[in-house]
TrEMBL record:
Cofactor(s) essential for the protein: Fe cation
Cited Gene3D superfamilies: Naphthalene 1,2-dioxygenase Alpha Subunit, Chain A, domain 1, Rieske [2Fe-2S] iron-sulphur domain
Name of the protein this chain belongs to: Aromatic ring-hydroxylating dioxygenase subunit alpha
InterPro entries, per the entry: Rieske_2Fe-2S, Rieske_2Fe-2S_sf, Ring_hydroxy_dOase_asu_C_dom, Rng_hydr_dOase-A
Species of the source: Paraburkholderia dilworthii
Keywords linked to the UniProt accession: 2Fe-2S, Dioxygenase, Iron, Iron-sulfur, Metal-binding, Oxidoreductase
Residue ranges occupied by any Rieske domain in the UniProt entry: 45-151
Pfam families membership: Rieske, Ring_hydroxyl_A
Origin: domain of life: Bacteria
DNA-binding is among the record's keywords: no
Organism lineage string: Bacteria, Pseudomonadati, Pseudomonadota, Betaproteobacteria, Burkholderiales
Length: 418
């Protein structure tokens, strides 16, 4: 198709046959990628870090979001703030991507100096009449939810972040994720479009054949299955699954824990998310190979180990919180065929490696799973760019979230590019 005959982004998105995957153009075109970044990563709320990234006053985390960049800062009053990573003089980057600790934010180009509250404190050679008060760093809208730092680069951020906050703050409260530290973190660049990364994360059709480490603790029935033509053995397993789920939920609710599923991904919703407390297989304690806690120092002030997996999914992140640790992943698009997947393993702030936990036991499930998913996304992306690709049907049993995501994506694209 010649450049002159290219369909618009919205036209391609709305051409998708219901119940089927997205057209390959939505994954491979540069213009589509650029619109995606603008709409879904600049105008919507995205997860950009955790409070453990900046544990002390003066700590800074610089996060690049394609051409944009932000500084996440803990100020002298222990507040989490975010600013555009752009000097108000001639636009130099204040910090390269990564973490650091500062007393003040000093531009490396001409040494304009900013306080942690964003105010411009010092400039040389600007004259006595120069008004510093109108040259503060440009703030970025920020919302901290249970240790998760959400940001929005738009002038008018979607107000429904408050529904996510009201839903998740009491669910995260028992774990007190603000009192954690990062035990380990990884960056993986997956060779695929960001939407394929999210789609891969939101279905477990592939899990049994490709994720032996993950399925040691996941119950496959939680992620959909075909109930038709079950053998007697499979039927008994299904009944056991329902019985275990019911017993676990009853036990958790007696302890005052919130368990119900919230699915918020309708086309008219800006801040889409899903949350659920999932039962863990085996001993039921944690997402580890033996399904027991990896850290004897539990999160918050918890004493009970078998609290399942408190799950949160957004359009650029997924979080799993167990009694002993949390795994927080989020994505940043780099190119049509490149997506950064950043994962952080959080433990109690007082947990000591080698004493309270073994690092390999803590991380091996998701280290392996992330590597496996990277390979799956790569082969998926390459196939969608083949001239022979025609979007196939979603499974109505195991890929229902992919249909919801596809509908949400097309609707938000239309609303935010109108």
């Amino acid at each position: 198709m010649s450049a002159a005959n290219l369909r618009t982004h919205a036209e391609v998105a709305h051409s998708r046959q219901p119940g089927h995957g997205m057209p390959g153009e939505l994954f491979g075109r540069q213009d589509v990628f650029e619109t995606d970044v603008d709409v879904f990563f600049h105008r919507h709320w995205i997860l950009a870090g955790v409070t453990a990234d900046v544990p002390q006053a003066g700590d800074v985390s610089a996060v690049d979001l394609e051409r944009a960049s932000i500084l996440i800062v803990r100020d002298d009053d222990e507040n989490i703030r975010a600013y555009r990573n752009v000097c108000r003089h001639r636009g130099a980057r204040l910090k390269e991507a990564g973490k650091s600790t500062v007393g003040l934010l000093v531009c490396p180009y001409h040494q304009w100096t900013y306080d942690l509250d964003g105010s411009l404190k010092h400039t040389a050679h600007m004259g006595i009449d120069f008004d510093r008060s109108c040259r503060s760093l440009m703030p970025v809208k920020t919302r901290v939810v249970g240790g998760h730092i959400f940001v929005c680069l738009a002038d008018h951020a979607p107000a429904d972040i408050e529904f996510l906050a009201q839903t998740m703050i009491p669910r995260f409260a028992p774990y007190d994720l603000t009192r954690t530290r990062i035990a380990y973190e990884t960056d993986i660049v997956e060779n695929g479009n960001w939407k394929l990364v999210i789609e891969n994360n939101r279905e477990c059709y592939h899990c049994g054949a490709t994720h032996p480490e993950l399925t040691a603790s996941f119950l496959p029935e939680d992620f959909g299955f075909c109930p038709q033509g079950l053998s007697d053995e499979s039927q008994r397993a299904l009944e056991a699954y329902h019985a275990r789920n019911a017993a676990s939920i009853a036990s958790w609710e007696r302890d005052g824990l919130i368990c119900g599923t919230v699915e918020r991904l309708a086309p008219d919703v800006a801040t889409g998310f899903r949350t659920q407390r999932l039962v863990i297989a085996g001993d039921g304690e944690s997402q580890t190979m033996d399904t027991r806690v990896a850290s004897r120092k539990l999160l918050g002030d918890l004493s009970r180990r078998d609290l399942g997996d408190m799950h949160l999914w957004t359009h650029n992140s997924w979080t799993h919180v167990m009694s002993d640790h949390a795994v927080v992943s989020y994505i940043i698009p780099l190119a049509p065929d490149k997506t950064l997947v950043r994962t952080k393993w959080l433990v109690h702030e007082d947990a000591v490696e080698g004493v309270d936990y073994d690092l390999n036991a803590l991380t091996e499930v998701w280290v392996a799973t992330n590597a496996q998913d990277a390979q799956l996304v790569s082969i998926n992306y390459r196939g969608t760019q083949d001239p022979a690709y025609r979007p196939g049907p979603f499974s109505p049993f195991t890929e229902t979230y992919l249909e919801l995501f596809s509908q949400w994506y097309a609707a938000r694209l239309g609303m935010d590019t109108a």
